[in-house]
Amino acid sequence: MSMPTRNGLEQMDRMDPLRSFRQEFLVPEGIVYLDGNSLGARPHAARERLLSVLDDQWGNDLVKSWNAHGWYRLPEHTGGSIAALIGAEADEVIVADSTSVNLFKLLIAALRMRPGRSEIVAETGDFPTNLYVAQGVAALLPGISLRIVDKAMLSEAVGPDTAAVMINHVGYRSGEINDMKEISALAHTHGTLIIWDLSHSAGVLPVRLNDCAVDLAVGCGYKYLNGGPGAPAYLYVSKRHQETIEPVITGWMGHVAPFEFDLDYRPAAGIRRNLSGTTPILSLAALDAGLEILIRAGVQSIREKSRRLGDAFILLSQPVMDEFGFSLVSPHDAERRGSQVALSHPDGYAIMQALIARGVVGDFRAPDTLRFGFAPLYNRYIDVWDAVAQLRAVMQNQEWKRPEFNRRQAVT
Ligand SMILES: *Cc1c(COP(=O)(O)O)cnc(C)c1O
C-alpha cells in the first residue's frame, strides 16, 4: 500500500464489499470507535433479540421457554455458530461461563489427561487473567508448577514433563499472531496438550483449530464477536478428547440427564459435559444474534479489510510516531498482525485520554501501550484518517498535558 490520501480512503470505502454492514451496528455519531477489541459495538439485531427474549419469552412464556424457545440448547447452538468462525465442527464448541473460568476448567482437565506430568507452560505475552488462573491452578494442585517463558524460549521450555501449553492466538498488547500450526505441533512432539485462547482472533481472522490439530481452546464473547459487556465465553474440546475429558466443575447442566435428579454425577456425552451451571440466557441471546452477522460477512473478507485498515493506520501514523516519539509495538507486516495496531509512548495514558476527548476511542494497556483496534464490519477506512489526524492534533497542541487527562480511571 502506498501512502493513503483522504480521497483514496473515501474511494476504498465506496468500493468496500463490507460497507453495508456498518448499518447493522449502532455506531454513535461523531465517534471513531477503535476499541472493538475490548468491547464490540452493539448490533441492532441484539437489541431486537433481547426485547423479544425479555417480553415474549421471559415475559410471556416464562419457564416454558426452556423448551419452547430453545433456551436449553442455546449454549450448543451458539457454540455451533462460533465453531464456524474458528475452524471447528459444530459440536466441538459450547458457550459457557467466562474465559477465565473456562480456562480454569480446561487447564485442570488437561492436567488430568496427562497424569504424571507436572508442568504448565505459558507465555509472557499471555493476557494476565490467563496467567493468574494458571497460578491459581498450580497453587491448588500439589506438585504442579507453572512456567512462564518468552515466546522465543517455548521450544526449550516444553518437554516430557509438560502437561499443557497455554497460549494466546493474538497477543492482547502487541497484536502479534502466534503460529497456531507450529506451536501446536511443538507441543504434540512432546505429547503435551495445547490450549489456545482465541479472544483476540476469533471473528476477525480465520482460525483453523482442526487443521492445526488443536486439543483445547477458549475465547471471549464481547470483543470481535460483539456479544455485549460480560457476554458469556466459549470453549472448544476436540472430538478426540470429548469422551475422555473429565469436567472439573461437575454441575447439573453438564450431567447426562439433569432432569432425572439423580444423586450421582454422570457426565453428558460430547461437548455438553463442559457446561457447569445455567448459562445467562439474556447475554447468550445477544451474543447469538450478533454472530449471524459475522458469519454472513465471512471471516475471509473481514480479514482482508482488517489488514488494509491496519496498514493504512501504520503508514499514516508513521510521521506522527517519528515526530513525537512513539514506537510501533505491533508487527509491521500485516501477515503477522491481528486486527489492532499498538503504539507505545511514555505518556500513553494521557495521550489516549486526550484522544478519547476528541472522539477517537482506543484504549491503553499499562505501562505505555496505546491500542487501536479495527473492527471491519463497522470501521471505515476514513476512520483511520480521522484517528491519525486527531492523534497529530493532540500531540501538536500538547493537549495530553492537561491534568484531567492524567488522572487514572478504574478501567483503562
Ligand atoms: C478479553 C480476554 C479474556 C477475558 O476473560 P474473561 O474472564 O472473560 O473476562 C481472557 N483472555 C484473553 C486473552 C482476553 O483477551
Number of strands: 15
Q: Report the biggest beta sheet as strand number plus sense, adding barrel if it closes.
A: 7 strands, mixed
By secondary-structure content and strand pairing, the structural class works out as alpha/beta
Outline, from the CA principal axes?
A: globular
Distance between the termini: 32 Å
- Count of alpha/pi helices: 12
Mean pLDDT: 97
Order of strands across the widest beta sheet? 4-10-9-8-7-5-6
Strand content: 5-15%
Radius of gyration: 22 Å
Question: What order do the SSEs take from the amino end to the carboxyl end, as H and E?
Answer: HEEEHHHEHEHEHEHEEEHHEEHEEEH
**Which hetero ligands occur in this complex?**
pyridoxal-5'-phosphate
Helix content: 25-40%
Task: Note poorly predicted spans.
Answer: none
Structure explained in plain terms:
With 412 residues, the protein is an alpha/beta fold. The chain is 38% helix and 14% strand. It has helices at 6-15, 44-61, 65-68, 74-85, 99-113, 128-140, 154-157, 180-189, 281-297, 299-324, 348-357, 381-396; strands at 25-26, 32-33, 42-43, 93-95, 119-123, 145-149, 162-168, 193-197, 216-219, 234-237, 327-328, 340-344, 360-361, 363-365, 369-373. It has a 7-stranded mixed β-sheet with strand order 4-10-9-8-7-5-6, with helices on both faces. A 4-stranded antiparallel β-sheet has the order 11-12-15-14, covered by helices on one side. α2 runs antiparallel to α9, α4 (74-85) runs parallel beside α9 (281-297) and α5 packs across α6 (128-140). The longest helix is centred in the last third of the chain and has 26 residues, at 299-324. It starts with 5 loop residues before the first helix and ends in a 16-residue tail after the last helix. Pyridoxal-5'-phosphate (PLP) binds at residues 98-100, 127, 129-130, 168, 172, 197, 199-200, 220, 233. Pyridoxal-5'-phosphate binds at residues 98-100, 127, 129-130, 168, 172, 197, 199-200, 220, 233.
